[in-house]
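Can you give me the bound-state structure? Components:
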Amino acid sequence: MSDIHQYLAEFDDIPGTRVYTAARARQGYHLNQFAMSLMKEQNRKRFHADESAYLDEWPITPEQKQAVLERDYNRLLDLGGNIYFLAKVFSSDGLSFVQAVSTMTGMSVDDYQAMMNAGGRSPEGVRSIRDGN
Amino acid sequence: MARITHGIACSHIPVLGYAFDHGKEGEDYFRPAFEGFEWTRKFMKEEKPDVIVLVYNDHASAFDMKIIPTFAIGCGESYPPADEGFGARPVPPVEGHADLAWHIAQSLILDEFDMTIINEMKVDHGLTVPLSMMYGHVDTWPVKVIPLAVNVVTYPPPSGNRCWALGEAIARAVSSFGEDLKVQVWGTGGMSHQLQGPRAGLINTEWDNMFLDRLIGDSQDLRQIPHIEYLRETGSEGIEMVMWLIMRGALGRSTRALHRHYHVPVSNTALGHLVLEPVDGSVPPSPTLEQSNAAAQTLVA
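Here's the bound-state model for the whole set.
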């Protein structure tokens, strides 16, 4: 690594991946803190009773709010969400990691599960956009 | 004197905790994953370590985005299991070893590892799943645990080289603790997995096994793997494997493997598990002034 700029730039060369950098951590701060609040049972109940009202208590952007309501996890990653924080949202929905993660891949849960059972997604061709390997 | 007897590496996949807690260990899907721990459960019953320095990462349970320590050590008396969004795991509270933990914390700081000290926290699947794998169903954990939490969520995480060096410093700290204790160091997380984005589901069996191979013996090559290689080759969450290098560093110059287990898939993840024994457990002397200074050392003894 020659410097921090090159270190960070490399992350954008990985296909289909959002590395949780400082820039994303800043953008998603309140979104992730909202997700964190779902660690508490009383908050989960309030959230599920009226999601929109609960989200209005947090200083998140309208785009972030909409993406939570739609459970659009790729969009949430783009808006600064981190998967370990977002896991509080899908766990409170009763979804497993496999069920939630599959929604980001454009595959059905069954197809995604079948891919995992067959050994997972090969790294071939998805290591680098630049090198196409 | 306290001594490091073994190192254990283990993935901490949450669904293993779920299967374990719900009596699903014998189901077709889970059996091959759990069978690989049978050897280790027998081993632990015979070996009876007193303390585990358990290296893991918190998954937005004890730490949120307010405070992000790179390396944090638990110096408290006990740690309840965390509610991660679906109720806490029904496992016993984890008992700490405050005397040894504070000794390690002080020694590490004098060794120029600027640790965050934790007195109270809840512990999530990252810590409790490996305990369940190694000890099975118990009313109380038959061992004391010193949690050592590493930030591998917000970039940059520590480098592999730094993790290895921290392991060496832990070995120096343990060896200067006066009580006769058998201490194991565990490195958890990994192996290849990606839980986010269109590339989710990535598994790299070949790379994972290269990593397992090089934890055994006297190679130090793994210290030099940059973050970008973990990300490209093993998925965005494969970076957790840097934590295994803390365990490996603590075992000293060379190791042998007593047990090895690898299984794909468990949920989204490649399961890896390795039991290592030091062959030559020596680590380099501390390069720091304070850690080499007798007067400073009497303060932490």
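A couple of observations. Residues 160-175 of chain B form the longest helix (16 residues). Chain B touches chain A through 46 residues (CB under 8 Å).
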